[in-house]
Amino acid sequence: MSAPIIVVRGLGKRFSRGGKDVDAIRDFNLEIAEGEFIAIVGPSGCGKSTFLHMVGGFESITSGDLLIEGRPVTGPGPDRGVVFQEFALYPWRTVAENIAWGLEIQKRSKAEQKAIVERLLAKVGLTHFRDHYPAELSGGMKQRVAIARTLAFDPRILLMDEPFGALDAQNRELMQEELQTIWNEARKTVIFITHDIEEAIYLADRVIVFSARPGRTKADIRIDLPRPRDIDVKKSKEYFDYRNQIWDLLRDEVLRARAEFA
Ligand SMILES: Nc1ncnc2c1ncn2[C@@H]1O[C@H](COP(=O)(O)OP(=O)(O)OP(=O)(O)O)[C@@H](O)[C@H]1O
Prior knowledge:
Elements: E1 6-17, E2 20-32, E3 37-41, H1 48-56, E4 63-68, E5 71-72, E6 80-84, H2 95-105, H3 110-123, H4 139-152, E7 157-161, H5 169-186, E8 189-193, H6 197-203, E9 206-210, E10 217-222, H7 237-261
Parallel strand pairs: 3-8, 3-9, 6-7, 7-8
Antiparallel strand pairs: 1-2, 1-4, 4-5, 9-10
Helix pairs in contact: 2-3, 2-4, 3-4, 6-7
Bound molecules: adenosine-5'-triphosphate.
């Protein structure tokens, strides 16, 4: 196997607030191979978003190592694209202009920008909405624009924090299918945070269950379901077994996290 693209060793993050220290993450270890789809689930407040922000280079590291292709993360970079729950689209830009945003920063030629934007509009099924503004779109459509905008500058690593959290159940399922299709084609390395165990199993090669705070690996479960995965896989016995296994692990941690705040 080739060297992992992301290596996390003994990672820790401590926040200090009002003279009190909070260990969000402690002694967290993880290795991710290029092209792997990793989902992270865990109780609320266990440090999942903090970890993703550290990989993104938006949050400093308190202790341990966080390496991408062998180099320590020191800040954001074009090798990493982020898609978060809130659709951070520019309201004054059309769909096409939102997708082109990163390409303008990269100073790509107008012709290149147009070709990439058209390809991505088709990929996320929004060709007919290219001249619409975000306010005219549904939540699912906005999230598709956000994904297209991130894919436009072609990062090797996609960091996704509850990207479908604000969508209704039907749109969520459609977006899961779409993301799987995009991932099958592009094979990017993905770290995907979700509260939805079923979503994690459907999408991921491995599901990492975080412990209650301070966050670290409680379990690292390989999902051996054949790809590409049809949405009907969610009705299979294997899927059901994974769901029970992960839910049992998570339940203990959710109870521990609750006890702390009781
Ligand atoms: N900037 C900050 N300053 C102080 N404490 C912080 C800061 N950011 C996060 N924390 C604390 O770190 C812990 C982990 O937060 P984080 O947002 O990473 O959790 P999470 O697992 O993503 O939660 P959720 O699932 O609810 O989104 C929490 O106790 C949170 O209050």
